Amino acid sequence: MTIWILIKSLIIGGLVGFSVSAGAARMYHIPKTQGMGAFRTLGELNACQGDPASHFSFGLGVFFNAWANTVAGGALTGDVGHRVIPNWSAAIVLLKGKDPEKTLHNPKKMAITGAIVGALVVAFLNVTASSIPTSLQEVASEVLVPAADWFLNPVMPAIFWLAAIDGGRRTGIYGTLFGGLAHLVMGNAVPGLVLGILIGKGVDDTGWSRMSKIIITAIVLLFIFSGFFRGFDIELLQSLNITVPNWLEDLHQIFGYEVE
Amino acid sequence: MGNQSSNGELANKDFWYADWSFPIFTTLLASGIFAGTHMYYVHGTGVFNEISILAMLRVGMEGGGYGAAAAFGASFLFARILEGSLVGILDIGGSMMTGIGIGLPALILAAGFTLPLTSFPVALITGALLGLAIGLIIITIRKYTIGQGGSSFGADILMGAGNQAGRFFGPLIIVSACAASIPIGIGSILGALIFYGMNKPIIGGAILGAMLLGYFFPIT
Predict the structure, then answer these.
(1) What pLDDT is stored for residue B89 in this prediction?
(2) Is the pTM value of this prediction over 0.80?
(3) What is the DSSP secondary structure assignment for residue A240, as one 8-state letter?
(4) What are phi and psi of A167, to 5 degrees?
(5) Quick one: B122 and B187 in the same domain?
(6) In terms of residue numbers, what domain contains B183?
(7) B193 in a domain, yes or no?
(8) pLDDT (tens digit, 9 = 90+) per residue, A38-69?
(9) Which of A1, A57, B16, B129 is deepest in the core (most CB within 10 A)?
(10) Separation of alpha carbons B64 and B67, rounded Å
(11) Chain A residues with CB-CB distance to B20 below 8 A
(12) Which residue of B has its CA nearest to A23?
């Protein structure tokens, strides 16, 4: 069992480390090159640029937190990909050559180093996390599951709702509209709020551009389809004391939904 | 070893700098991230995301429905693809860790397919194909929009709200631990205090403290 976790982790870590580190080096060449990572990562890499010790200790600082999260919840945290792997790869390539232009900014060197760093980091985290006794994991899930349920509802909807309202008039309007509808139709407001923020901000920044129109069409279709397949239309009619027309019942039956 | 002195020339030709090679990098990354979610699905560890976002997927895995995880992850992915091609940096947190690692697995599981998450090779291939698609979409959008700037489609707001919501998870864990049993609650409080004292997010300490005391005083 553990040997499989080790092997899989080495492969996964190698893949992730390779591409994350190459993407990080490519970030130094935007806009000519498409990079991947995060502006946050770029800023942090710049903050300790050129000094291997700073890169290493920065990565180490978040590594312990990542370790705690992996042991506790099986989650490697975003820090592993955003901070630990890029910064440790940077530290190693900078040890070999002091000039960041030729090392940290070089996707090839970063990718190869990153693959090794990633494989070791991911393997270490997963193997140590999987070796803890099952009784401990039971305690972890005993604590985590209720917290996760509360988190999903009502904490996340409330926070995203406030973010939509604070994001501007348009995100507030679309967020409230789609968020409310999403809770009615899908049972959780977050998807609707996210979509409301997406379309609200898109229209704020680019107007009713072609992209905005495509997005709003997709959102409307999403609501129509998920409403239909969850039988929301039937429930709506029934709760308003309106008789459900036969053709609608038949339509639902085609897709396997039984109308009571 | 390429000569980097003429970067402008290389940008169009050299594999490591070219646009055409970008989908290869997204393919590899998505393959790894998706397989990481497979690891969690099968072995209980290895997902590349925060515990708070993983919690959404977990709710689905325990029978509570994948809707929230799927919608959150997929729309985050969508926003980040648009933004990434416009600004030149694809945010791997939203697109890969949340989109590929949480949203798309939730969609796939919600649709009733479990093989991509139970089999390691299938997970690698599924992730690779999804990553390839993302890379190709970005390069295509980039062809038409390069230099136009534009909108982040609210990705910054989503990230802010995601981080804000994530902060709630620490206190929720302590409350949940206190409801589980008295020793676990005490452990969780002490763990959170220690982590807070060390300027670390309290969530890690809260869980570790709860587990430590839970080891000596198991829930009966």
Answers:
(1) 85
(2) no
(3) T
(4) -75, -10
(5) no
(6) 168-220
(7) yes
(8) 877 887 888 776 788 888 888 887 887 788 88
(9) B16
(10) 9
(11) none
(12) B25
